[in-house]
Please model this.
Amino acid sequence: MAKKSNSLADPPVRNREATRGQLIKAVGEILAEKGFGALGVNAVARQANVDKVLIYRYFNDLEGLTKAFAQEGDFWPSIEELAGGDIAAYQFLPLEEKLINLGRNFIRGIRARPLTQEIMAWEMVERNKLTEELEKARELQMLRFFEQFLSKENDNIDLVAIMSIIGGGLSFLICRSRHIQWYNGIDLRSDEGWARIEGGIEQVVRKLLQ
Model:
């Protein structure tokens, strides 16, 4: 009997983790290129070049795959990345230095993730269970960061509100930079422009905490 040829319906044997990684990566590629409306089991399988049955085998369903993308797909900067790479050293920084470094590391982490920028922009116009999973992953990450590094700081300062204002502003500017170069005379597509914004965060934080 002739050996069956490999195809999407009959894929070659692959390492489980490698295949999971292909599927997770495919989710991000589709979200960035076409938005949430284009995300489906068949579309992800085609993008990853694997049989769609593997989505059910490894993730149970599309929602499970999206959850894995949010948690495993390098979608959001890790706690270590937000802390500048040295959690032990960050733990002992003065409060103002913690906030300044957090702002700086957040900018650099999101700017280094064009895929995340595209997804953040799509989330503003498409709302569904999949966007909720990505939001949940972000929220949990930032809440863990707060609990680990900032929860025992000055009770007279609403650090969550401050972080929300700064983070929201930065998210807006980063997403805007995808298609619009200038904002109030600052070049959002240049390292020099973002260095100015980092400097602005430092000035605001230092004045606030004086």
